[in-house]
Write a structure and sequence with these properties.
The chain is mainly α. It has ten helices and no strands. The longest helix is centred in the N-terminal third of the chain and has 45 residues, at 2-46.
Amino acid sequence: MSNFSSTNSTNEEYKKITKILTIGIPVTTIIVNVPAIVMIIWIVARKEKVKNCHLLSIGITDALVGISAFLMAETYLYTEKIFSYYDCWIRYYMFCLSLSASMLHVLGICGQRLKIVLEKTAVQTQQYNRKFGWLVTVASWTLSIIINSIPFSIWTQDHNLSMCSLDTLFSGYERKFSLYIGTSIGFYSLLVVLTMLILSRHLWLLGKRHPSNAWGEKDRRIFVTVCIIAIVFLVTSTPLVCILLTYDHLGDNKRSKRSACVLISLLNSAINPVIYLYRVQKFRNILRKIVLCGKFNNTVNPQSNQNRINPPNLEVSAL
Protein backbone atom coordinates (compact mmCIF):
# COMPACT_ATOMS: atom_id res chain seq x y z
CA MET A 1 0.00 0.00 0.00
CA SER A 2 2.83 2.37 0.90
CA ASN A 3 4.59 1.53 -2.38
CA PHE A 4 1.44 2.41 -4.31
CA SER A 5 1.12 5.73 -2.47
CA SER A 6 4.79 6.48 -3.10
CA THR A 7 4.42 5.73 -6.81
CA ASN A 8 1.27 7.83 -7.04
CA SER A 9 3.02 10.74 -5.29
CA THR A 10 5.99 10.46 -7.66
CA ASN A 11 3.69 10.56 -10.67
CA GLU A 12 1.96 13.65 -9.32
CA GLU A 13 5.30 15.39 -8.80
CA TYR A 14 6.40 14.41 -12.31
CA LYS A 15 3.20 15.84 -13.81
CA LYS A 16 3.63 19.04 -11.82
CA ILE A 17 7.25 19.51 -12.95
CA THR A 18 6.27 18.71 -16.54
CA LYS A 19 3.52 21.33 -16.45
CA ILE A 20 5.85 23.98 -14.98
CA LEU A 21 8.52 23.36 -17.65
CA THR A 22 6.05 23.05 -20.53
CA ILE A 23 4.45 26.41 -19.69
CA GLY A 24 7.44 28.10 -18.05
CA ILE A 25 9.96 27.80 -20.89
CA PRO A 26 7.68 29.33 -23.58
CA VAL A 27 6.63 32.13 -21.20
CA THR A 28 10.28 32.81 -20.31
CA THR A 29 11.14 32.90 -24.01
CA ILE A 30 8.48 35.55 -24.61
CA ILE A 31 9.56 37.67 -21.62
CA VAL A 32 13.31 37.72 -22.38
CA ASN A 33 12.66 38.79 -25.98
CA VAL A 34 10.44 41.73 -25.02
CA PRO A 35 13.45 44.07 -24.42
CA ALA A 36 14.75 43.37 -27.94
CA ILE A 37 11.37 44.26 -29.46
CA VAL A 38 11.15 47.43 -27.35
CA MET A 39 14.67 48.42 -28.42
CA ILE A 40 13.84 47.93 -32.11
CA ILE A 41 10.82 50.23 -31.71
CA TRP A 42 13.01 52.75 -29.81
CA ILE A 43 15.75 52.68 -32.48
CA VAL A 44 13.29 53.17 -35.34
CA ALA A 45 11.26 55.86 -33.55
CA ARG A 46 14.27 57.88 -32.35
CA LYS A 47 16.43 57.13 -35.41
CA GLU A 48 19.30 55.88 -33.29
CA LYS A 49 22.56 55.20 -35.12
CA VAL A 50 23.06 51.53 -34.30
CA LYS A 51 25.23 49.08 -36.19
CA ASN A 52 24.49 45.35 -36.07
CA CYS A 53 20.82 46.13 -35.54
CA HIS A 54 20.04 42.88 -37.37
CA LEU A 55 21.06 41.01 -34.20
CA LEU A 56 18.01 42.55 -32.52
CA SER A 57 15.64 41.65 -35.35
CA ILE A 58 15.85 37.98 -34.36
CA GLY A 59 14.10 38.98 -31.12
CA ILE A 60 10.80 39.39 -33.00
CA THR A 61 11.07 35.89 -34.44
CA ASP A 62 12.11 34.36 -31.11
CA ALA A 63 9.19 36.04 -29.33
CA LEU A 64 6.82 34.46 -31.87
CA VAL A 65 8.51 31.10 -31.19
CA GLY A 66 7.62 31.50 -27.51
CA ILE A 67 4.01 32.51 -28.24
CA SER A 68 3.40 29.62 -30.65
CA ALA A 69 5.11 27.18 -28.24
CA PHE A 70 2.79 28.33 -25.44
CA LEU A 71 -0.25 27.69 -27.64
CA MET A 72 1.11 24.28 -28.62
CA ALA A 73 1.85 23.43 -24.96
CA GLU A 74 -1.86 23.59 -24.21
CA THR A 75 -2.46 20.65 -26.54
CA TYR A 76 0.13 18.60 -24.66
CA LEU A 77 -1.06 19.41 -21.14
CA TYR A 78 -4.82 19.32 -21.68
CA THR A 79 -5.23 16.04 -23.57
CA GLU A 80 -8.84 15.71 -22.41
CA LYS A 81 -9.78 18.95 -24.19
CA ILE A 82 -11.21 18.55 -27.68
CA PHE A 83 -9.46 20.72 -30.26
CA SER A 84 -10.90 21.22 -33.71
CA TYR A 85 -8.81 20.16 -36.70
CA TYR A 86 -8.15 23.74 -37.81
CA ASP A 87 -7.31 24.91 -34.28
CA CYS A 88 -4.78 22.10 -33.91
CA TRP A 89 -3.42 22.67 -37.44
CA ILE A 90 -2.80 26.39 -36.84
CA ARG A 91 -1.07 25.82 -33.49
CA TYR A 92 1.42 23.30 -34.85
CA TYR A 93 1.93 25.10 -38.15
CA MET A 94 2.73 28.40 -36.44
CA PHE A 95 5.22 26.73 -34.11
CA CYS A 96 7.05 24.91 -36.91
CA LEU A 97 6.97 28.09 -38.99
CA SER A 98 8.43 30.37 -36.31
CA LEU A 99 11.01 27.80 -35.13
CA SER A 100 12.31 27.32 -38.68
CA ALA A 101 12.38 31.09 -39.23
CA SER A 102 14.43 31.56 -36.05
CA MET A 103 16.95 28.92 -37.15
CA LEU A 104 17.21 30.42 -40.64
CA HIS A 105 17.69 33.83 -39.03
CA VAL A 106 20.73 32.53 -37.12
CA LEU A 107 22.09 31.16 -40.39
CA GLY A 108 21.59 34.58 -42.02
CA ILE A 109 23.50 36.34 -39.23
CA CYS A 110 26.41 33.89 -39.60
CA GLY A 111 26.33 34.39 -43.37
CA GLN A 112 26.52 38.16 -42.97
CA ARG A 113 29.71 37.88 -40.91
CA LEU A 114 31.20 35.62 -43.57
CA LYS A 115 30.27 38.10 -46.30
CA ILE A 116 32.07 40.88 -44.43
CA VAL A 117 35.26 38.85 -44.07
CA LEU A 118 35.24 37.67 -47.70
CA GLU A 119 34.98 41.30 -48.80
CA LYS A 120 37.76 42.14 -46.32
CA THR A 121 35.83 45.08 -44.97
CA ALA A 122 33.31 45.65 -42.24
CA VAL A 123 32.67 49.34 -42.88
CA GLN A 124 28.89 49.55 -42.72
CA THR A 125 26.42 52.35 -42.71
CA GLN A 126 23.36 52.47 -40.49
CA GLN A 127 21.16 52.18 -43.58
CA TYR A 128 23.01 49.05 -44.75
CA ASN A 129 22.52 47.31 -41.40
CA ARG A 130 18.82 48.10 -41.31
CA LYS A 131 18.34 46.87 -44.87
CA PHE A 132 20.25 43.71 -44.04
CA GLY A 133 18.16 43.16 -40.91
CA TRP A 134 14.96 43.41 -42.92
CA LEU A 135 16.41 41.21 -45.69
CA VAL A 136 17.34 38.43 -43.24
CA THR A 137 13.95 38.65 -41.50
CA VAL A 138 11.93 38.56 -44.74
CA ALA A 139 14.10 35.86 -46.31
CA SER A 140 14.00 33.60 -43.23
CA TRP A 141 10.20 33.86 -42.95
CA THR A 142 9.69 33.37 -46.70
CA LEU A 143 11.83 30.22 -46.77
CA SER A 144 10.18 28.96 -43.58
CA ILE A 145 6.70 29.41 -45.09
CA ILE A 146 7.72 27.47 -48.20
CA ILE A 147 9.45 24.66 -46.27
CA ASN A 148 6.65 24.15 -43.74
CA SER A 149 3.68 24.68 -46.06
CA ILE A 150 4.64 21.63 -48.11
CA PRO A 151 4.01 18.94 -45.44
CA PHE A 152 1.14 20.80 -43.78
CA SER A 153 -0.73 21.13 -47.08
CA ILE A 154 0.07 17.67 -48.52
CA TRP A 155 0.08 15.31 -45.53
CA THR A 156 -2.85 16.70 -43.52
CA GLN A 157 -6.56 16.59 -44.21
CA ASP A 158 -9.65 17.65 -42.29
CA HIS A 159 -10.84 14.94 -39.93
CA ASN A 160 -12.07 14.53 -36.35
CA LEU A 161 -9.16 14.42 -33.90
CA SER A 162 -9.27 12.21 -30.81
CA MET A 163 -6.56 14.49 -29.40
CA CYS A 164 -4.43 17.31 -30.79
CA SER A 165 -0.93 16.04 -31.57
CA LEU A 166 1.42 15.69 -34.55
CA ASP A 167 0.67 11.97 -34.73
CA THR A 168 -3.10 12.49 -35.03
CA LEU A 169 -2.75 15.59 -37.23
CA PHE A 170 -0.49 13.75 -39.69
CA SER A 171 -2.28 10.43 -39.28
CA GLY A 172 -0.66 7.95 -41.68
CA TYR A 173 2.15 10.39 -42.55
CA GLU A 174 3.65 11.04 -39.11
CA ARG A 175 6.86 9.17 -39.97
CA LYS A 176 7.35 11.15 -43.21
CA PHE A 177 6.69 14.44 -41.43
CA SER A 178 9.17 13.61 -38.67
CA LEU A 179 11.90 12.73 -41.17
CA TYR A 180 11.12 15.81 -43.28
CA ILE A 181 11.34 18.29 -40.38
CA GLY A 182 14.33 16.50 -38.87
CA THR A 183 16.19 16.65 -42.19
CA SER A 184 15.34 20.35 -42.61
CA ILE A 185 16.62 21.32 -39.15
CA GLY A 186 19.67 19.11 -39.63
CA PHE A 187 20.38 20.89 -42.92
CA TYR A 188 20.17 24.31 -41.20
CA SER A 189 22.61 23.08 -38.55
CA LEU A 190 25.01 21.76 -41.17
CA LEU A 191 24.98 25.10 -43.02
CA VAL A 192 25.68 26.98 -39.78
CA VAL A 193 28.64 24.69 -39.05
CA LEU A 194 30.04 25.07 -42.58
CA THR A 195 29.58 28.86 -42.50
CA MET A 196 31.39 29.21 -39.18
CA LEU A 197 34.22 26.87 -40.30
CA ILE A 198 34.76 28.88 -43.49
CA LEU A 199 34.57 32.12 -41.52
CA SER A 200 37.10 30.92 -38.93
CA ARG A 201 39.50 29.69 -41.62
CA HIS A 202 39.41 33.00 -43.51
CA LEU A 203 40.02 34.94 -40.32
CA TRP A 204 42.94 32.70 -39.39
CA LEU A 205 44.50 33.07 -42.85
CA LEU A 206 43.94 36.84 -42.82
CA GLY A 207 45.62 37.18 -39.43
CA LYS A 208 48.49 34.91 -40.43
CA ARG A 209 49.28 36.71 -43.68
CA HIS A 210 48.74 40.25 -42.44
CA PRO A 211 49.16 40.35 -38.63
CA SER A 212 49.47 44.15 -38.70
CA ASN A 213 45.86 44.44 -39.96
CA ALA A 214 44.23 42.78 -36.99
CA TRP A 215 40.66 43.41 -35.93
CA GLY A 216 39.73 46.03 -33.44
CA GLU A 217 38.23 45.07 -30.09
CA LYS A 218 34.68 45.77 -31.30
CA ASP A 219 35.12 43.56 -34.37
CA ARG A 220 36.39 40.70 -32.24
CA ARG A 221 33.47 40.98 -29.85
CA ILE A 222 30.96 40.89 -32.70
CA PHE A 223 32.64 37.79 -34.14
CA VAL A 224 32.69 36.06 -30.75
CA THR A 225 29.01 37.00 -30.24
CA VAL A 226 28.05 35.35 -33.53
CA CYS A 227 30.11 32.27 -32.60
CA ILE A 228 28.31 31.96 -29.26
CA ILE A 229 24.91 32.28 -30.97
CA ALA A 230 25.91 29.56 -33.47
CA ILE A 231 27.17 27.20 -30.74
CA VAL A 232 24.02 27.64 -28.63
CA PHE A 233 21.93 26.98 -31.74
CA LEU A 234 23.78 23.72 -32.47
CA VAL A 235 23.65 22.49 -28.87
CA THR A 236 19.90 23.14 -28.49
CA SER A 237 18.81 21.90 -31.93
CA THR A 238 20.83 18.66 -32.09
CA PRO A 239 18.61 16.64 -29.66
CA LEU A 240 15.50 17.56 -31.67
CA VAL A 241 17.16 16.53 -34.93
CA CYS A 242 18.18 13.18 -33.43
CA ILE A 243 14.69 12.48 -32.08
CA LEU A 244 12.96 13.38 -35.35
CA LEU A 245 15.32 11.31 -37.50
CA THR A 246 15.03 8.25 -35.22
CA TYR A 247 11.23 8.22 -35.18
CA ASP A 248 11.02 4.45 -35.78
CA HIS A 249 13.15 3.71 -32.72
CA LEU A 250 11.39 5.87 -30.13
CA GLY A 251 9.00 3.20 -28.90
CA ASP A 252 5.59 3.99 -27.44
CA ASN A 253 6.57 7.19 -25.66
CA LYS A 254 7.25 9.23 -28.82
CA ARG A 255 5.30 12.32 -27.80
CA SER A 256 7.00 12.81 -24.42
CA LYS A 257 10.49 12.39 -25.86
CA ARG A 258 9.73 14.75 -28.73
CA SER A 259 8.22 17.34 -26.38
CA ALA A 260 11.32 17.26 -24.16
CA CYS A 261 13.56 17.95 -27.17
CA VAL A 262 11.25 20.74 -28.35
CA LEU A 263 11.64 22.42 -24.95
CA ILE A 264 15.43 22.13 -25.27
CA SER A 265 15.28 23.72 -28.73
CA LEU A 266 13.23 26.58 -27.24
CA LEU A 267 16.18 27.46 -25.03
CA ASN A 268 17.91 28.80 -28.15
CA SER A 269 15.24 31.48 -28.53
CA ALA A 270 15.41 32.24 -24.79
CA ILE A 271 19.21 32.52 -24.65
CA ASN A 272 19.74 34.58 -27.83
CA PRO A 273 18.62 37.95 -26.38
CA VAL A 274 20.73 37.39 -23.26
CA ILE A 275 23.80 36.83 -25.46
CA TYR A 276 23.57 39.95 -27.59
CA LEU A 277 22.44 42.19 -24.73
CA TYR A 278 25.44 41.05 -22.70
CA ARG A 279 27.96 41.13 -25.52
CA VAL A 280 27.04 44.34 -27.37
CA GLN A 281 27.69 47.52 -25.37
CA LYS A 282 25.51 49.71 -27.61
CA PHE A 283 22.46 47.54 -26.93
CA ARG A 284 23.03 47.77 -23.18
CA ASN A 285 23.27 51.56 -23.44
CA ILE A 286 20.00 51.75 -25.38
CA LEU A 287 18.30 49.53 -22.80
CA ARG A 288 19.51 51.86 -20.03
CA LYS A 289 18.13 54.83 -21.96
CA ILE A 290 14.74 53.15 -22.19
CA VAL A 291 14.69 52.21 -18.51
CA LEU A 292 15.83 55.72 -17.49
CA CYS A 293 13.39 57.36 -19.95
CA GLY A 294 16.16 58.72 -22.19
CA LYS A 295 18.20 60.34 -19.41
CA PHE A 296 21.20 58.02 -19.79
CA ASN A 297 24.08 59.58 -21.70
CA ASN A 298 27.07 57.54 -22.76
CA THR A 299 30.16 59.21 -24.12
CA VAL A 300 31.94 57.06 -26.64
CA ASN A 301 35.18 57.61 -28.46
CA PRO A 302 34.12 58.16 -32.09
CA GLN A 303 36.96 55.99 -33.29
CA SER A 304 35.71 53.03 -31.24
CA ASN A 305 32.46 53.08 -33.16
CA GLN A 306 34.17 52.06 -36.34
CA ASN A 307 33.35 48.48 -37.13
CA ARG A 308 35.84 47.56 -39.78
CA ILE A 309 38.61 45.29 -40.90
CA ASN A 310 41.34 47.25 -42.59
CA PRO A 311 42.15 45.62 -45.93
CA PRO A 312 45.74 44.38 -46.13
CA ASN A 313 48.25 46.98 -47.31
CA LEU A 314 49.77 45.01 -50.13
CA GLU A 315 52.22 47.75 -51.13
CA VAL A 316 53.78 47.91 -47.67
CA SER A 317 53.92 44.12 -47.34
CA ALA A 318 55.61 43.89 -50.73
CA LEU A 319 58.33 46.27 -49.56
